[in-house]
Fold these 2 entries.
Entry 1:
Amino acid sequence: MPLLNKQSFEPRSLPNGIVQDTQLYYCKATKELFLNHEEYFTRMMMLNTTVWSCSLTRKSNLTYFEAIKSEQEAETELLNFPESLERPILFIVQKFTNRGRFEELVNDVYHIMKDRYFTNEEVYYTERNRKLLAQIITSYTVEEQQEIKTEPDVKEPVLLPADAYRYTIKILGIDSMTENMFRENVTHDNLFRSKNIGARHKIRLLLKNCCYLPPDGDRYTVRDRFIEKVSQMWWSDVMSGTEPVCPQTPVQQRGRVPNLLIPGLSRTQNRKKKNENDDNNAATPRRRGRPPQTPEQRALKEKRRQFQRRSEAGIEPEIDEFIISQSGALTLTVSQLSASSAKKKVRKSSASLKNGKKKAKIQEQQEDLDFYFNEARRLGVDISGLEQDERLLSPKIVANFKRKVREEKEAEKELMKEERKRKIKEKAAYNKKREDLICNDLKPMPKFPALELPSWMTNEEFEDYLFILQFFSSFKDILPLKEIRGSESVLLSDVILAIRCGDPQSSPFADLMRVLLSIRTDITDEEDGDEADINNREEMYLINTQNCDPINLAHGDSIKEISDLHQKIRKIYGKSVRHLPVDWMTLTEVLRLIFATSGYYTGISTHRHRLYARGNFRGYEDPAYELRMRRPDIISKLRTQTVFDLEPSERMEIVKAIIYQLLTYSKLRGYLEKSQNDLNELKKEQKKLKTWDAGQEGEANAARLVLELDTLDFEKKESPVVKIVKSHIKAHNEGRRYDKNDLDTILLDSVPYSSLTLDEIIAARELQKAEVKIKLDIMSSKTFAMHCKVSDIRLGSDRAYRRYIVMENISAILVENPTTTELCINCDEPSRIDDENNLREDEKNEVFLCSGQLATCLVHGLQRNNRYRWCYIESRDQFQQLLNSLNPRGNREIELLEYLNEYRLNLLNVIEKTEQLKREKCWEENLMTNIPDPADTYNIDWDTEMRDLLLDFEEKLDQGLMGSIEKVFKINRSSWRESLRDNGDVVKLLEDNNEVFDQNIIDIQSVSEVSTVKKLAIAFFMIVRSINLKFIKPPYISPTKDERGNLKPSELFNRWQSSLLQCESHSALSLFITTFEGAIKWDKSRLQGKCKSCRRKAFANELVLCTECDSCYHLKCAKVDLKLDQVISDYMCIACKAHKRKLENEARRKNVSKTEDSLLASMSIDEHDSATEVIDEASTSSLSVTKTASGRSVKKIHYLEVHEGLNLKARKSNEVLMSSTPFERAHRNEPVKVLDHDTNRDSIQEDEHDSDGENTRKRKLPSKRSLTAKNNDSPRVIIPKEKEKMSAIEQLLKEAMRQECSWPFLQPVDVKEVPDYYDVIKRPMDLRTMMNKIKQRVYNKPAEVGSDFRLLLSNCETYNETESEIYQLSKQLDSFVTTRLDNIIGSR
């Protein structure tokens, strides 16, 4: 039945005196009868007001009908509540909970049930994305059962964590008994309850109807009718493991004491009194505190005071009798009798009355002093003569007694206050952080197993391997691991094999070094560049003012030598050291050159970058430079041996030096700083979320407290957010579908707790906690992953200074014991342990204590060297044991404990991987425990490898018809190959010496006794000299030709050949081979060609190569006779023959034309001088005379050709020559000298080419144009209109040069920065050259400026990729200039 104003409602009984014809009003809802309509109307109004509440759920502010519906729903839910879950819950309430507040009781039960499951309970089991109904058969724990100790401030029940339980379940719904019905070792992650059963509001409903708070009790217990269900149960019937320990909170009484707790007042009297008050004052609120006195009670009290005063004064009133009325008031009756009789009656009655009053007063006084008597006994105050029932104590005695008790209580309070202060100080002193070893409550720590390192590996080497492995793991995003190795992961075994193994074909050392040197090339291109010219004026000023490396007192000379060496190497190989090709054969020489040139001076271009971005980095601080100075023996070995011949420790030194060198560059340092900043930001967000969650907890508690204290019910206007939250919470509690994303957004934003009911606040807070926990776990996982990305995670150290390191790349948590050199700490104070049980050691535990003496101390003394250097955490149990053993008062262990708790889930995943590797027997394989020492394997013969390489090289050249040793050196090719294959000595086949730079570099008499490497270098030199120069690329070929018009080698190529014969190691020779192999035009080889006639491929012996155009033809297509070998070697295709004949005819016509011009010039000189000299017959006969149609004979005149685009110097010389008169000729018959444009072009290019054979700035002259003789005699004339256009174009170019997009096009391209630019671009152009040509009036027309600008854009498009920055800048410059330039040129 619903409650009316939270009191039980009893319908009215049937009215009396009802006859058959009486008109009644029937209320169907309450089944009541009323005699009149007013009573009926009053009842209906009451039923529709919100003064009712549900008796089962205690929901208030309901109408009668809503309360009835709520009770029906609650009864249905109670009937559907499973028996297998009801009995454990009631058992927990009866046996373990100690709560005096109902909500705390619900929280305790829910906390115990959360993620834990009871025996015989039906749950859902998830397996392979399927949800199956199952039943819990048994459960057990994976952790040792220990006695659970609670602290006073614990707010939730204490029991084993949910992940410590394992369950055996039975799958329901299977017809026959099979093995698939049962699942063992099931964790709580795969089990869950239905939301309709395990929700908090369901538990609250069950406990409201099954539990109550006894009137004289301080905790909720199970009602009597449910006791039988749980009386015979034990904890083992419910769940395994240790019994839960629940906190205790007594009943907090507010207001007056309930009538039920008043002694002497029965429950029936209390109910009657309560009903009467409810009927009389249904609408008035109940008063709090002591009830007011009635008039009768006040009158009685006043009369007592009067009699007490009269008795003290000795006055006796004339009283016949005392009558105490039924209400308790005292009335006096005085009679009209005689004085004597009246006196007798008064004496008798007054005497008896006085005795009764006196005893009553004594008893009342003793009852009032009963509290003080108890306090006095407790405080030790003497109460002799005070606690009695014979006499009435005087007020003075009572006052003195009370004062003495109060003084003792005050003294007790002061003592208690001092005691509390003392305890607070002791607690603060106890909890104060201190040295770990002086804590008196240290517990034994778990004994970790030793890391199974191979016998041939030392602890220091393992540390270096971890360092190299961590470097590759930290920078794998920017290292080219995928491009070189095909995988982004580097294993520990790869690093160990790379350092230990000396076999280049089995060791990944070359691949890992290629990765390091590739990123080094990219970084040095950006941050270093090439060496600077120390003799430059600006460089000298910078060196002297900034005290740069070249003038350093200790290292200045070395820096200069290194810079000169770097320049020399660049002039030998045509590229810097950082760009040299790297493979397993050239690696040694490249490393030697890197160490030999590290620390070179880069000059003013990188000074500011080194100063600010690299921390004022100096060349002599380069780790590679320091290694060369510290270990010159390693560098000397690299000169004659290979890196694979070194000791593993020496290879380790090389790798570490390269890594340290990379870490000095700003790119890697910036990458680390960015990752560290991201990690710090993530930690700040995590801390901010925790602070916000604590604030939400306070808001929720405040809202709950307001609802508990505020008894006024009034309607509040709900906002849309509140309505949404309430609807989502209701749907969640009822198990219906709702928008979870919408609810999660509100939960993580701000929940309006002040507008929710008590149940809604609790449900919303639980959902918010769950969502915050999920987000914190995600952020913790991100933090862990980012921390692993930055470096290995140093969790901290324990009391024995052991470091705990997370190495995710080997899936282990390592424990490193410090060495003697690392830990230099003396003993200070010996450790003192209060509990002797903590001093016991066994197989699983070990104790670390300080003895106070360095000789015997296990932590600070030398005895710590007896422990293993490297250990690891092998199981989850050991991890939990470590957490329990750490002392939260120690300086080191508190930090370690915080990190372990923060990354708990991630660390458990790492340990789980460790356990999996050990189960799969891959743990020792990854550590290479049982593998023999890879350093013992070496099966490479460098001489054989090099000879095979040279033989293959020569074979490709010969088969491709690109060169022939027989023709160049006049020796038999078969004999040469046989000598090279046998012993590599081909010097004996040479007949003449060989020269480079007019120096004899191969002296046959002196090379008979040389090293094997020198003999192989001579063999390769012969191969190089045998190649036709047309198959070699620049910069090995000079852009100019010799006097015969043939190709000639560049000076760089000559220096390269000289250096080739100075090789001292196989790796150096291999580097020469590799660099030269890339300079050969292999696409012109016969082996790579197709028949130009039929477009089909064929074998080399079926093709013939044209000596002019290098085109291939089938022998059949070329119609070549196989018997004529000379035709095959000197074959020329039909097209080349036709072109050759054409050139010969043109040359013949040019000779005839030159002869005619000479004759004409001689004739003009003779006529002007009026001389009569005879002209040579041959010249006269060559003069061509033609006849017109009318028969008149005329002379054929040939005009001189002068290119209009010559530079100013050439143009002036032409003008002088062409404007000279015949009178200025020195000799009469001297022919006119005409400037040969082709010869001038070759001379210009040859002058502008540097001594290294590397192309610098060069300009190909524009096309030729014909000018008449009289134009050559007249000066340049520019009309005013054209002059205005040229001025406008000049102004446009100035504006263009000021644009940001014009910086790549301002100056000619520098050959040092772009060595191959002039190999691709034959006609370069830039804005500065165009501006100079305008100022020097080289342009005849404005259209020529447009042609040069289009040439500039075309060159940029040809050389640069479409996605490059310079190409995009050219498009911006095009859009700025082209339209305006076309408008200027096209204007009239």
Entry 2:
Amino acid sequence: MADNTTTASAEPSAASQLLQQHHHVVPHPVIVEEIEDEELHKPSASATTSSEVEAKPTWVDPMSAKAAGKQKAQEAPVSRLDTQSHELFPELGGPKSKANTAAAPIWSAKSLANGKTNGSSPANGTPRASAPASGVTTPTGPALHSAPTLNIPGRNVETIFLEPQHVLPRNQLKRPLPDILKDLNRKSRANVNMTTTGNGRLKFEATGPQDIAQQALKDLVYQIGTKQSVKVPIPQSARAHIIGKGGSTIKSLQEKTGARIQLPKVDESQPPVDDDDDGMIDVIVEGNALSAATARDAILKIAGERASNVTTRLKDIPAELYPFIAGPKSALAHKLEEDNGVQVRIPPHPTFSSQVPKAPGPGERPVFVSANNDNPIQLAGERAAVQAARAEIERRVEELRQQLAMDQLSIQRGRHQFIIGERGIPLDQFYENTGCTILLPSDPDDDMVTVIGPQELVAAGVDKAMDLAMNMQCSNIDISRFYRQAPNGASVHARNVTRYLRQRKEIERLEKLYNVHFNTPFSDEGAQPWELYSRDGKNAIRAQSEIKGLVEGHPPARMSSVTVDPFFHSYIRSEVVPRVRQDYRVHLVMPEASDTSAPVLLVYEGESSPDAYQIPRAQPSQSDVTEMQKWLQDASNYILNLVNQQESISSTSIDVPQKFHDKLRKFIKREQGDRSANQIPVRVSNLGTTVTFRGPSSAVESLAEKCRAFVEQEKEDEKERGFTLEFEFPQKFANHLIGKGGSNIRELREKFDVDIQVNDGKVELKGPKAKAEACKTHILALGRQLQDEATHILKIDSKFHRELIGAQGSQINRLQTRYKVLIFFPRSAKSSKDDESVAEGSDAGKPRRQQAPDEVIVRGPKRGADEARDELLSLLQYLKDNSFSATVTVQQKQIPSLIGSGGAVLDELRQATGAKIDIPRDTNDGLVEILIKGTKTQVAAAKKLLEEKKAVYDDTVTKTIDVDRKYHKTLIGSGGSNLKDIVLKAGGSDDRRELARTIQFPKQDDADGVTIKVEGRSDVVDKIIAQIQELVLQRESQVTEIMEVPQEKHRSLIGRGGDIKRGLETQFKVSIDIPRQGSGQTGVKIIGQSADVEKAKAHIQSLVKEQEGETIQVPRAMHHAVSNNGQFFRKLKSDCHVSVDHAGQAIPKKPEAPAATRATGAALPLITDDEEATADVHSWNVVEHTSAEEGDIPWVLRGSPENIEKAKKALEAALEQAKRQTATGYLILPDPKTYRFVIGQGGSKVNTIRKQSGCKITVPRDQAKGEAIEVAGTKDGVEKAKVLILEAVREGVNSIKVAQRE
């Protein structure tokens, strides 16, 4: 029997202090016999002595100096139990050496001089009855043991020692100690003897079989031992391993040791802990001396196994120092790993930062703040090695704080992208080249670049940054100048165009095409001028030219915007965007996450599909503008109505423990999945344990209440998690219960919230009792259902197997899930990926099925098997009916034209014929065999179309014709109109893709290119070339004449959007060039055939003569009253065909409306005010007309004499009416929704009010902006109109309330 000796290395206990006073250590080699823990150790069959306690746990290693400094000084124990004491726990055996009074706590024990830890425990024995709280355990090694003793079979002796204080006093024992021993010897097969040693300790020896002898000593100590309490410090990360799954480990420990084990409760509001040095908790172990020590050692062993390797996160190191810690190409980090044997992960330094270090003052060092960042340095490995690496990194950080300097410089923000990143150089390369790192600001309003590095290298780093930034040419493009008169402002429209082009990736396309870079900054007012960066000036010019075309193709009439609460953005993005595009031909651009305050942008795109849509590059016609505005208005109304139908938005929060979050998330997903199609889902977020719901009020309240009830139920269920229910289930149906890959079991676990184990014909359920009973009922019902299992063997030709199985087994998996059956297809010699998805895995490990190549087996409940068989046979019949096939061989070069852009042509063929058309990808002989599958009719139709296309392609020829470059623009025409006419007249296709392929002009960058390529059928190509030659001959014979036309008449020749000019050019087959406005030139150039030019001149002269016009002087003070915001001009244009200008004179300044206030001067009511109290609240201001304008302004009426006379009469009537308008009232209602009651259906209400009051009433279009209703007329008439308007609003509101009550 071996000697086991204990050496103390922690604070001396009371007993050890007494020994030190006497300067005496008893050299008493003691044999310790302990109980073998079957769970923790496997005893040797031949062993008759107690084995050695495991050596000191590997997680007891020295910590870094910094970490050690955080440990509180440990006070000497006074009244608590010292588990280190040999006197208190003599069963550790062996004499006690002198105590080391300087011992450190167990979690930061220092190494001795020789590098070994101070104290270790035997490595292969049972747990000791006690171990020091400081980490000192029994030493090991051959030198510490006495000579082995002779083992006699059946004569095994187990020994323990007890101090007097560990034995109950005589008056607390139920019987005298000798009587207890006699009774124990009588009941047990072991013989227990007691002797007293020299120092008063009691020695108990049990002779007999090992297990029986150990149990006898256990029973003895249980009867005579005192109750003790021991604190065992362990890493917090080991807590879960002590408890075990469902508490299994801690329950087993308590049963085997007889001790009570308590762990501190976890603060559920805190996130899960990381494995780190300082995360410690105390485990309380209560029991007698033997059971407490045994439980304690078992706990320490589990913790030791789990805590030997740790992962530490250094969260207090500034991210700016990462590159200097890692070194060039991470050389320093690799050296750190090699020297310490740990894994070092240093995250890449973020280039863009929102927290740039403050610039230091003269002679000062920069201060790098230790931010608790989310991407810290991580160290992983053995605890001692990790601590050493951490100390090295912390030392390096302190050095860097003293060595690094910093410089900042302002660089145009658009140039930042060329310093670091995709368009610059990698940050690692910048560091390797300069020895410095660089920070770029993430704030769009900040342009300060920061360079950090050693003092002597910072200047070189700054120079490098400037060189990179200034390596690109920069030019500005102000796109707002194209539409100065945009309704909402030029800059706002420019921002809308920029957002759309960005979202459509059109700007990205230009960047790739011309190798340039755009910076499109925004401000609160709108878009700022674009910054265009390039290395090639020619490419910059080409890009600018294309941008001009894109902007001109997107006038304000093509776009509109709708302001929507950001809450609805997600719903609109997923549900509304595709619907609006399909139903209203409008594309929606949603605000970015960084700018949720931006409105939703609506852009008209037309009937084409989103994928095939081509961005326009020319201004739309007037008819196109009218259509755009109609569709945009309809789409805007649809979105606003959808949003207005929703309830008011509210939010609420509930507190949910962290451990219930996953279950709550699944519960919410199920609840929200049951909502109606037009209901917007509630948005759910969490911060810590707080879960917040935001959405429509009723939906938020309902969901929050359900979640509260769910969490409360989970808390109640948590108390019953230990309930276990076991029952039998037929083993032959286990595969059905488990499902493929455990899918059925997972589904049942999710559904019933219980743990399910299936083993050898038994099912064990663990969880809340009610849920376990429900799950049991469900499983037993499934078993009864499977009792009537049936097997069908179907004869199916193997050529149909692949299609029956489906891609990745999708077809068969669907049948198996629906009917709860298993379907087996024969294994082929070379299995495909599709075959692997079939239910083969369920028979894993079993003998291979004997199955013919044409046999398919369906197995499962009779009803399900019958239905699966019938559906499988129906599918087979369908495949047979649709298994006709044919092939068409075409040239490889024809394939792109057959597929089309994005597969459009091929999809059209498939839809037109219904056939399945497969085109192989790779061919080597220049020919491609296209496979057609489907019904007989479908295959025949598809084959016919393909052969027609093949015949056309085979007859396709390519010819070229040289045409002087100056005629190219004429041949193309406006928007390609002339080109289209040429192809159609020759018998070509009007398809846009075919047009582009038929006639190809030289590229723009080919300044000398004159060759035009024509491709198509030979007859079509010949006709096209003939037309081109004819057009060129006509151009060459053209004449040019200049006709003098007064500058003020130019506008009448151009028309709105150029429609008159285009009409003249089409009518007379000429080209008309009119000088730009403001150029001072009057000559109009007419180009064409001589006869056509003469006709055009004569017509223009007649037009100019008709447009001589007549001037009427209108008082400047009455100009705006008569023009009525331009409505009077439009009326003259539409009714009298007369245009009006002012002979170049400036228009009088329009009087401004007063501020939106009540008549009393108070602010308008809030939306949170009481509805009844604010029903009659409004803002009303009357302004009497006292214009400071003096004199007259000329109104030049242009048109035919008879039309001018009509216009003059209308103008005189308007002047008379304006004279009677002595006042203007401005009325603002508190609720924009009530403006519609003023207008009435089809404008009926407002027209009635106009007649009754004799006033002119203008209701603003966009009431949401707080614009006023303008009432112009006499002072009395204005007041009367106000009363009538308020009555109309009151009637409308009351009618809605009545309807709601009904």
